[in-house]
Amino acid sequence: MDEGDAHDQVTRLEDRIEALGESIERCRKIAVGAKLSVAAGTLWFLAALLWIVPFDATAFVAALTAVLGGVVLLGSNATTWAQTEAECHAAETARAELIGRIELRVVGDDTRTIH
Hints:
Blueprint: H1 3-49, H2 57-101
Helix pairs in contact: 1-2
């Protein structure tokens, strides 16, 4: 394998790993938002059940939407998160294999060494 070609492949893989890391971070933020949505809807139901807030049909529908939407978002996001993490792990493994195949040399030394 040409060393320049391997370097380009490693660079592309590192860019891909960085993009996947950003996607995983977005998944974390979405999960937090979905959990907050479920918690807020549940708190409203509890408050209405205990007569802390007066029952309102519009608020009931909004709370129900928040809970159901949060649950659906959590499920969908969990799948995306798992797939993205698997893809990131595969890219990291491929990068490690490519780096392992490159014959590395010590800077300033003309002899080839294997690291």
